[in-house]
Structures are given as structure tokens and as C-alpha cells.
Amino acid sequence: xxxxxxxxxxxxxxxxxxxxxxxxxxxxxxxxxxxxxxxxxxxxxxxxxxxxxxxxxxxxxxxxxxxxxxxxxxxxxxxxxxxxxxxxxxxxxxxxxxxxxxxxxxxxxxxxxxxxxxxxxxxxxxxxxxxxxxxxxxxxxxxxxxxxxxxxxxxxxxxxxxxxxxxxxxxxxxxxxxxxxxxxxxxxxxxxxxxxxxxxxxxxxxxxxxxxxxxxxxxxxxxxxxxxxxxxxxxxxxxxxxxxxxxxxxxxxxxxxxxxxxxxxxxxxxxxxxxxxxxxxxxxxxxxxxxxxxxxxxxxxxxxxxxxxxxxxxxxxxxxxxxxxxxxxxxxxxxxxxxxxxxxxxxxxxxxxxxxxxxxxxxxxxxxxxxxxxxxxxxxxxxxxxxxxxxxxx
Length: 394
Fold this sequence. Notes:
Spore Coat Polysaccharide Biosynthesis Protein SpsA, Chain A; alpha/beta; 8 strands; eight-stranded mixed β-sheet; about 400 residues; about 15% strand
């Protein structure tokens, strides 16, 4: 047993006879260099200029615009009114449906007097997936051409349905719009908005530039109605975007990204709300990681490269956690043997450069640099979120 406890002695790691430090250093560097290089390559391609390739459609297809709302009826009422008042698409070519859960009587009465179809799920508290499943049961596959999935707080560009219609006419059955943060009035929301824009550039814009499917984000998504009607009943879990991505890629359906179709939503402003949201991401990440480890070998053998890329993407650590791990390893190796640390600081440089390349411009970037002091706190939180999850599950 004495030999086991030797690993807690720094002198044991610096002993060249056992090569423990060199071997551990090499393994950790390889494991962390792979996601860093992956992000850097896509960050480079995110610099390519976006140009919408789709010509004007010959006909206006019929849309079902589906809003999901949990508790906050005031937001969805405002979002629906904004959609109807500002959308430049023919009004007789789209209908609006609302999956309404846990709404007050006042909000329900307001919705009843609006030109929308209201569906109240048979469970008072349910997931977003279950609420959407309840709505789709009310429709037939041939009722519409496309469905647009929205969150209760989303306000989308005036020409959104027109742009979706053009892409659908050209053959796109799955489309993700460019979701952005509307509220930039707190440190947490600014940092979240910056992270979302980096993800938009790396996992959506750059991916489609290289021929891979865009990542879905849970709202501002448009799908072929018949396809969506067939897929929805089989969706499981609480993460709509991951469940849809898995089904679409298994059916070899490509997801397009329309960068110019902006959809605004709200981000958590308080630290407590962000932590709660992050725990939801961690829970989803654990499940998707184990699923990816199981599915990736067979997808690789079959040559399903788009699916392989998505599975590999699900195995990556979060961006904040990756930053924390690389920096911690760089500092740790420096303290143990500075001759091994040069490559670690090079890796830190490449990682920072990748994020700088994918960094949004304009207002979000300006506000980010003013609030960058809080980034170490979020990184610290990202380290302990998985630990917190394990403790809570015990």
C-alpha cells in the first residue's frame, strides 16, 4: 500500500526512473489537444463569409408555428403578437399553435382570444418534448408543409418564414436559424450571449461551410412537417435539440444553418438561474457522452461521417471546462517539471486563439470585454458542476 500513496508525493512524479510524469503528461496532452485542434479548425472556417444560396421559392408553403411555454404566459403572448404584427409572410399561409403548461387563468383567457390553437398537455409538469408530442397528436401529417419550433420568449426576423420557405423549396428539410441573446443587462447574460455566439460560429456556420450538419439549439428550428410528425413520437429525454439531432442524422437528414435569420431570446441574468440551467446541460451531457461512446464505432464503420462528427462533438467537454483543464494541466506540469510545459502553453494559446477567431463582433464583444472579470468564476463553476451532479445523485 505504501507504493500507492507515493503518488501523492511530488518527488515521486519527478523521479525519472518510473517515467510516471512523462507518461501521464503525454496522455493528458493527447486527450486535451484533440478537442482544442477540433475547435481551432472550425473556428478558422467560421471566418468564411456567409452567403444565402437559396433562390426565391415559386410558392408559399404552409407553416405551423409552434410556441412552447412553461409558466410564463406573458412572454409567449408578447412573442405571438410580435410574430403576427411583423412577419412579412402571407397570413393565410401559417397558423400558430401553443403548447401551454402551468399558465395562469388570466394568461389562458388572453390566449383564447388570440388567433392561435392552444393545446394543454395532460400532465401539469412535463418536458418540452412531451408538450410538443401532445401538440402534434392534434394534427395530420399532410396539414402543413413545415413546422417552426419556438420558445415562449423568441422574437424572430420579419423575413424568417420567407427565408425558411426559400430553403425548403430548394430541398432543405431541417433548418436552424441564428439565435441571439436579447438581454445584455447583466454579467451572466453577457457571458452566456458570448458563448452562444461562439457556438453559432463554430458548431453551425463553420460546420455547414465544411459540409456537416448544423447543430440544433432547441428553438428557431424549422422542419418538414411530415418528417417531424413521424419523428416526434419517438423522441425521448428532456433535451429536444439532441433528441432531434440523433433522429435526423440516423435518417441521413442534413440540417442547414441560416445565419441571417436572427431569432432573439432571453438568457439567465442571475447566477442562481445560470447554475440551474448549467446543471441541466450537465445532465444532458452525461447521457449524450455515454451514448456517443457506444454508437461512434459502428457509425465510423458504416462511413456515416456527419453522424460521426455529431457523436464526437457530444463527447467534447464544455468550452469552459476545457479552458479550465488545459490551464490546470499547464500550471501543474510547470510546477512538476518546467521542461514539459512549453507544449501546454502552446495549447493554451491555440485554444484562446480559436475562441478569439469565433468571437462575435459589435455590441456583444464590447460588453464581453467589460465583463471578462467574471469568466474565472464561470470556469470555476464549470469544474464543480459535474462533481455537484454526482453528489446530488447519491
